[in-house]
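ok so i was messing around last nite and threw this chain in just to see what happens. nothing serious, just curious
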Amino acid sequence: MGWLWGSSKDGGSGSSTNDPLKDLDPSLREFLEKESPVKYKTAQAPAPPPSIPAPSNSNASTQTTTVPAANNTNGAAAPSQSLFPDGRYAHLWSTYKPLSDVENATKTDQEKLLDVLEGFKERKAQIGRAAVENCVMEQWAINDCYNNGGWKSRMTMCRAENREFERCYNMQSRFLKALGYLSNYDRPPEVDEQIQMHADTLYHRMLERERAVEEAKAAGLPIPTFPDILSSSKSTPSTTTQMTPPASAENPVPLPPDLEGLKPKVKAQLRDRLKDLSPEERALEEKALAMEIAAGKTVGKQIDKMFEDQAKAKKLRKEQGKETFGDKISSLFGW
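result:
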């Protein structure tokens, strides 16, 4: 009955099933291993694990001190994005490109043009958001009027508070434009925040000037005049009387030299916007319009440069014999 458990020679049924070729002739066994589509696993005695001597404390300390030194000697230091300022993985950072650079390199001409236009629109939207942030107290006054105001304020839908908020929003937007909020798209956010805070400071300085004028009128004193609010650092009133002729058909509102080169229709629209403003508001609006036009010219120059680069690239492809189908179509229409 020994066949049920295997003989002591082959070590039981488990070892015979693990190595079915062990009783064959060595030449036949080699042939089967080479030609048979089914590969059999031969039973091999597991090799004993090598004994690794435990390192001493002195060797471990020397290894830990020499690894950073070896890493520091490999190449240049890693950039600021790396989590290892000691220079590790500097060979990987040497070929690193930011995702924005990769995306810009793969953008088409149409996508680049849309980015410029969208950037200008986003800048205008940011002016609106910054103006609303500067007028948060006026917003709070409107909310308080609707919740806790008297019956007279509620009957008029808080008209006085809404007018104050509307004037604050318009003036803050003018100050932001006049201070160059539209001029640059690549500056850090800290600069935008400084411009926003300075615009709020100038607005409250303008309100102080208006209160000084009202107090002088009420007291029967000469109306004080102030220097340009954008160019002056302090409000130092003088006692000379300010005389500004009203605008009329015979005496239209004069435009600054920066706006004289516009079309007659556009100049007529600008005069309509300026004729009902106070002298200080008119000067601020003129400055804001001039800066907005300058920002539009900057965007136009960027678009012109993009078209010039496209024309140069198309000319180079034509000289190299690599003109695309789109190049041929654009040449037919004179693009």
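not much to say yet. DSSP finds 13 helices and no strands in the chain.
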